[in-house]
Write a structure and sequence with these properties.
Largest sheet: 6 strands, mixed
Radius of gyration: 16 Å
Strand order of the largest sheet: 8-2-1-3-10-9
Strand content: 25-35%
Number of strands: 10
Oligomer: single chain
Order of helices and strands: EHEHEHEEEEHHEEEH
CATH class of the largest domain: Alpha Beta
């Protein structure tokens, strides 16, 4: 069984029934192309099954989680998590993570955070200084499959085994 899922909202906000909209809001997927990392549980599985015609999901690995945090992770004020700073706080050419953003959750590096997210040990909602979602762009070169059908019916919705390649084009 999977330990954590990467969930992306594919469909927009128009003509969504109230019960699906409520479930999407509970998962912090208010807008189109928003993504979350959710730990796998029976309640999350039930929610994903209920809204499978609006989202796409896949089990996430640590490398994809790290790439998402590096490129699309945001802290309060919609600033990037990684900054180019030296020990005195001046901008340099070296990439260094601001420690106080992720040290609240007990992590020293972004690699540790990505590993625990992919293993389902922590949720993004537990880290107060970080946004619980990732704002993605529409995929470069478009969707290769239909956005109106499930994955088994030559679409992208539901449990999608090719979501990681799609996500890389959306970052």
């Amino acid at each position: 069984m999977a330990k954590a899922y990467l969930v992306v909202r594919i469909k927009g906000q128009a003509d969504v029934p109230y019960w699906a909209n409520t479930t999407l809001n509970l998962l912090n997927l208010e807008k189109k192309y928003r993504a979350i990392i959710a730990p796998a549980s029976a309640s999350i599985n039930g929610m994903l099954k209920k809204i499978q015609h609006y989202v796409s999901w896949q089990e996430i690995d640590a490398t994809t989680a790290k790439e998402l945090l590096d490129k699309k992770g945001r802290k309060t004020g919609y600033k990037k998590i990684t900054e180019l700073l030296d020990k005195k706080g001046r901008k340099t050419g070296y990439k260094k993570i601001t420690v106080k953003d992720i040290s609240e959750a007990g992590f020293k590096t972004i690699d540790e955070l990505a590993a625990s997210l992919s293993e389902g040990k922590i949720s993004m909602t537990k880290i107060k200084s970080l946004k619980p979602w990732f704002a993605l762009s529409p995929p470069r070169q478009g969707f290769k499959r239909s956005t109106k059908h499930l994955y088994g019916q030559k679409g992208v919705l539901g449990h999608n085994k090719e979501l990681s390649t799609l996500i890389k084009r959306m970052m």
